[in-house]
Amino acid sequence: MRIEGYTCDVCGVQRGESNHWFMSRYGEGYFRIEEWNAQSAKLPTCKHICGSQCATKCLNQTLEQWAAQLAADEKGRK
After folding, report:
1. What's the alpha-carbon Rg for the chain, to the nearest Å?
2. To 5 degrees, how large is the angle CA 64–CA 14–CA 68?
3. What is the mean predicted confidence (pLDDT) over 13-30?
4. What is the pTM of this model?
């Protein structure tokens, strides 16, 4: 059985009833992976993650974005 409305933001798989999903939220200077919470999953700042492999990919993508932003900031200061 599928639960409508949630798709992994990393790989695109749709959430099923018995899947063990996570959520990630991040902002300036923080990245957090949390256990699935139906209320928090509705927040626009939440990314939906289908498992540990996609959680790792999400963390890597976030770190790459931060590194690129830091490099751009440094370049802009010169």
Report:
1. 15
2. 10
3. 84
4. 0.79
